[in-house]
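G., before I forget:
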Amino acid sequence: MAELQKDPITRGDFLGFGLLGAISGAILTIPPVAFVLSPVIKTNVLGQTDIDQGWQRVGPVADLEPGTPDVFEVEFPIEQVYSDREIQEKFSGSQKSESEFTVRHAVWLSWKAPVKIQGQQGSGGDILGEPEKPAILDQKTSGFTQSERDEILGQLNILSNSCAHLGCPVRWFPEKHEFLCPCHGGLYDINGGYVGGPPPRGMYNYTQAEIREDGTLYIKHGYDIEPGLNKQQPYVV
Amino acid sequence: MIGRIRSQTEEASKFVVDWMEHRTGVVTILEHALYEPVPKRGAWMYTLGSAVLLLITVQFLTGILLLFYYVPSTDHAWNSVNYIMNEAYFGQLIRGLHYWSANFLLAMIGLHMAQVFFSGGYKAPRELNWVVGVILLLLVIGLAFTGYLLRWDQDGFWASVVGMKIGSYSPFVGGYVINFLLGGDVAGPATLSRFFALHVWLLPAAIAPFIGLHMFLFRKHGVFGSQMEYTERLAKLHERQRLEEYAGFEMDDDEDGQNGRSNGRDE
């Protein structure tokens, strides 16, 4: 083919065309790629999140019985695509979407059962003692002091119902005394610890939580993602 | 009377066809595209590809129709599907066709691929057509995956969540893949918009040229080539053997052909 070419490309030509090509290539490709990948850049690179980072009410913990986890629904407001918040800030009188967009979480609360023997690989989970409810909850219903609140919180399992395997919602089976995932049969104990099935770890815990003076639990969106095989968020739900 | 009308119609249509052929070559194209010698044995097996093409065409047509009513937003997606199913005339038919032909499409693709595989249709020079076919399969799987979420019901939602989480386990890029599909870090309005964009624009736009390429390569090489070629090769072999035989006769006696033939090769 080379002999067909009348004017061989000089080094200057090559560099010039290369530079020109690189510039025009960048102009043509960077905007659309960044446009499509902007959520990836925002979440993975800049570490932003679509979920409201404020406190959300879960519910009163006083009625929680030891040995039977209870499920609470928590709605975290999310800000995605419709930019309602920005529009409301700029033009507060303008029309707003009728429904507020939220992501609904099911939060399992239970009293911690002390771990007697740490589970080994393939052992079928931890050997647990009897779950204990903090005694202070039987004495008063409100006006908890800071230390009492810390004690209650320390005894509480705050678990996401999103299975650590593929995110299906897990459910408590009282007769089995285990959490069971409907999709592929992941099993967890009352502390959310791994018992069996495909999940690579135990259930996700909410890491930011507080008990208020009236004994109500509030949480923020955030999980202990560290102990997983890969540090994955539960993402959805 | 009838005969006259018939002959007139014939003439008129011949004129139209000739006119079009002269200007566009459409008749030649159609002849190339539609007529192809098929081996007698197992001829029905070669219609599977056409079945796939028909089902994809149905997907395109019914999909376009569904877009007249479907609303890709989290607060109205399900409602609009409900409207299609209950209020729009023939909505159940149109959506049912879209749904069922999507299901049968994947089954047909499986059969089509099995037929090509077991008949050795992927062998040289048709390797690239197999490759293009696999790309088409992946695009169809992508379409099946993204279409499921658009209903925004529990079924589709959780299937998509599980599917996306499976994607999130891919090495190195898993975390990026799921955030790309979610359009953020939570399943919400952005997720639906993205799946809509992928299902309705990106993947159909990507699948169309590959279908064209698949058809072009298929017409270039033929689909039942292996069997045809085999017959052809066999014929050639017989021809060569015959020629060699003749050559043997001739070598015996190249001076006198008449005697040579009677002598044979008994030396």
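Chain B has a mean pLDDT of 86. The interface with chain A takes residues 74-75, 158, 161-162, 164-166, 168-169, 174-176, 178-180, 182-190, 193 of chain B (CB under 8 Å).

More on Monday.
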